[in-house]
Amino acid sequence: MTWLCGAAALVLALGWGLLRLKCGSRYAGLRKLPMEGLRLRGLGEPFLWMIERWKLGRYFPSAMFRIQRSLQRTYGTRYSAERTLLFMGEMISYSWLFLTAGSVLTVLSGETAGTVLGTFLAVMLPAALVSDLHKKVRLREQNISFELPELLNSIVLLVGAGETVQRAIIRCVDSRKGDTSHPLYKELHQMTAEWDSGYSFQQAFENFSKRCAVQEVSLFTTTVLLNYRRGGADFVLALRDLSRMLWEKRKAISRTRGEQASSKLVFPMVVIFLIVIVLVGTPAFMMLKM
Q1: CA-CA distance, 241 to 37, in Å (whole number)?
Q2: pLDDT digits over 238-286, tens only?
Q3: CA distance 223 to 184
Q4: Do the beta carbons of residue 46 and residue 23 sit within 8 Å?
Q5: What is the largest CA-CA distance in the chain?
Q6: How far is CA 99 from CA 8, 40, 48, 92, 207, in A?
Q7: 163: buried, middle or exposed (CB in 10 Å: 19+, 13-18, 0-12)?
Q8: Separation of alpha carbons 122 and 52, rounded Å
Q9: Which segments cross the bilayer (predicted)?
Q10: Which end of the chain has fewer CB within 10 Å, C or N?
């Protein structure tokens, strides 16, 4: 078994080296593409060539579509194919790394536990990366839906005070003092930049809705585009009706987050309960044996 693992480690290392020679500097331009969470870009470049050359994506069309869709919601549609390729390369890099490390560990220790552990991690970690990506997308959508009622209230107050919708949104963005850490204000900041670069009000709003890809934002965009030309009391009334609906949605999100937080506390409470039982019951059990 030891010599077999040694041969496997050698094959994996040689395979990576051959792929490295094949791809050369073909993917050097992707190194500077902004994307969070990628730690093995240099190691994964040979696997990018393998994915494209062997068209591995066609064997998992549903998974590839979900990954690309999640990346589009996070980073936008621009360079979505390149980011999907980088994400797939990262997954394969982790699998290759753990398989190689497990084989080497088995050779050094003489135990098969290294290969078993390496194979287990090579399967589970890519799945965890995909799950974490989808979780981040859901959290982003929740954060946008959670903040949108606050933004809408500010817009209603400013429009009611005589501001135009465009000026009201710009004032709301400026009030954050350039802070674009929140996904909603990040997209709003990009929308105001599009206005400055010559985009029409309607076109910039539609792009904003597509980038957010959230139902509540689509309702907000539709309401604004249908009513902003009329202005006056009708427009403010439409925004107030939408605000009430979005506040109900925010309450639902708050309840969901509260339930999730409560469920996360169950396991620690069970562990603490078991520890208390052991601490209290052990002396009593020892006294009974005496």
Answers
A1: 40
A2: 888 888 888 888 787 777 777 666 676 776 777 787 777 777 767 766 6
A3: 17
A4: yes
A5: 89
A6: 9, 15, 18, 10, 43
A7: middle
A8: 21
A9: 85-107, 113-130, 265-288
A10: C
Amino acid type, 171: R
Rounded Cα distance between 5 and 115, Å, is 8
How many other CB atoms are found less than 10 A from the CB of residue 213?
Answer: 18
Query: Which residues make Cβ contacts (< 8 Å) with residue 184, sequence separation at least 6?
Result: 143, 144, 147, 148, 151, 212
Query: What gap in Å lies between CA 89 and CA 48, rounded to an integer?
Result: 5
Query: Burial of 113 by CB count in 10 Å (0-12 exposed, 13-18 middle, 19+ buried)?
Result: exposed
Q: Where are the domains of the chain?
A: 1-19+39-110, 143-251
3-state SS record for 69-112: HHHHHHHCCCCHHHHHHHHHHHHHHHHHHHHHHHHHHHHHHCCC
Over residues 224-242, the pLDDT tens digits come to 888 766 656 677 788 888 8
Tokens of 213: 């890809």
Neighbouring C-alpha atoms within 13 Å toward the C-beta of 180: 9
